[in-house]
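Its record is quoted verbatim for completeness.
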Amino acid sequence: MEQVLLNPGKLARTAVDVASDKKASDVVLLDLQGLSSIADYFVICSGSNERQIQAIADALEEELEKQGASLLHQEGDATSGWVLLDFGAVIVHIFGPREREYYRLERLWSEAKTVVYLQ
């Protein structure tokens, strides 16, 4: 089978669309190119409760794999209030409201360019 090279920017935007379709709030796409060796893009979003956080994570994994991406690693789960999905060049963070406020990833990566912000 021929390997398809995925465009990380397109993959990140797909992640934003999927999170938005699942009613995630405060969806942010940060461009980390040139700032980090761990990823090119972070997608950060919030779910209002455990069920929604899990639904967002499941939908992201399903849709991004349809696009040809592989989930390399997952950290956390909905009960912890923070799920991290690592698709290589794109890392998705799904937070509960309290965890989002506590970790403040947007502040930590304040030098990154905000590509998309959906409230």
Remarks:
- The chain has a mean pLDDT of 93.
